[in-house]
Amino acid sequence: MISKTMQDAINAQINKEMFSSYLYLSMAAYFENTGLSGAAKWMYVQSGEETEHAMKFFAHLIDRGGKVELAAIAAPETAWAGPMAAFKAVSEHEQMITKSIYDLYEVALAEKDYPAQVLLQWYINEQVEEEKNATQVIESMSRIEAHETAILQLDHQLAKRGSK
Ligand SMILES: [Fe+2]
Ligand SMILES: [Fe+2]
User: What is the distance in A from the centroid of ligand 1 to the CA of 51?
Assistant: First the structure.
């Protein structure tokens, strides 16, 4: 049986993952509206992965006889200054999530919750990937900056993003 402290902390993280999904969905809408359908595709995939992250915690609570308590999801922003600003926001958001996963790991250590520690190690690895993905797009963008054609080429590349 999972402790109440661990359960509450995981429920709070489920909300953060769902907010992440919502945020990236909002960015997908923004990119659709600004004609960058490749970047929108990247965001749809990213949004779907965040829902999976939430569901992995959800399943963990259920498997351990815990109680899932879904809270309201905050409204994300709906506009950014441009593609670069949006991807910088992704990067900052992921750094915040990484910190949140580390805090959760601290709770699992304090609670001597070994199954949660094992589960969280998956998220720790996943965050390395998440931060890397955002950084790569930012680096490509900073290299091409205001070159409209190059942005469209990059958009074409982003459209090829698979589920991983
Ligand atoms: Fe996530
Ligand atoms: Fe993420």
Answer: 8
